[in-house]
Each structure stands twice: as C-alpha cells, then as structure tokens.
C-alpha cells in the first residue's frame, strides 16, 4: 500500500513539475519577446549574461534586492534635502528675528543713553552758568551791562557834586 502511494505521488508531482516548467517557459518566452529585453539581449552585456546564466541570476537578484534600499536612501536624501532647505529658511527667519530684536534693544539703549547724557550735560551747563553768574557776574554780558550802568550811575552823582 505504501509503495502504491509513493508511485502515485511521484506521477502527480511529475505532472505538476511539467506544468510548472511549461508556465515558466511561456513566461520566459514572453519576456524575451519584449522589445526592450530583445534590445538589451542584442548588446554585448546581454549576450554575456545569456551565455553565463549564474551571473545573470546574481545580477537579477542583486538588482531586485538592492531596489528597496536604494529607493529608501534616495527618499531619505530628498527628504533631508527638502527639510534642510526649509530648516535653513526657518533658521534664517529665526536669526533675522533675533538680530532685529537685538538691534532694537541696542538702539533703544543708545537712545536712552543719549537722552541721559544730554540731560546730565544740560543740567551741568545750567548749573555751571548759574554759578558763574552768581560768583562772577562781570564775566557775563549782563554783568558787563549792569556794571557799566552802575558805573554810569555812580559817575553821575559824582558829577553832580
């Protein structure tokens, strides 16, 4: 009974193998009939790969397996490039904002400093001029005019005497 099952399974797997081989042959014929494949097979590389099937299979597997990592890398590179461009723009805007705020603060500080220095200098000018007028009235124009008037008043009474 066991021998009978093995013989029937080998005959069915033989027919399965035959069907698989026919499908595979049909698929390969369809691929070889494609104009792009025919053009590739007419080149030196195509003829070399046709005469060396192991190398052709290696190249095919490598190409198929490398497609995903290469595609992911290219996607990563493009996303990185776009993000760095956008990041550069946003960073530039940030730096310009910080620079503008710094410039505004520095200019405000300079304006306040200038106001305070001019206020102090004006106060010193007024104070010094008042002190000079008080202690040295003859140095000012008013003091000279008043002095001449006072001399003129004193000289008139002398003449009257």
Short description:
The protein has 161 residues and is mainly alpha-helical. The chain has five helices and no strands.
What would your notes on this structure say?
The protein has 161 residues and is mainly alpha-helical. It is 93% helix and 0% strand. The chain is built from five helices and no strands. The protein has helices at 2-33, 35-41, 44-51, 53-135, 141-160. Mean pLDDT is 83; it is low at 1-5.
Tally of individual helices: 5
* SS-based class: mainly alpha
- State the order of secondary-structure elements, H for helix, E for strand: HHHHH
The coarse overall form would be rod-shaped
For the termini, the CA-CA separation is 175 Å
DSSP strand content: under 5%
Mean pLDDT: 83
Unreliable sequence segments: 1-5
What are the defining features of this structure?
about 160 residues, mainly alpha, 5 helices, disordered N terminus
Topology readout:
Blueprint: H1 2-33, H2 35-41, H3 44-51, H4 53-135, H5 141-160
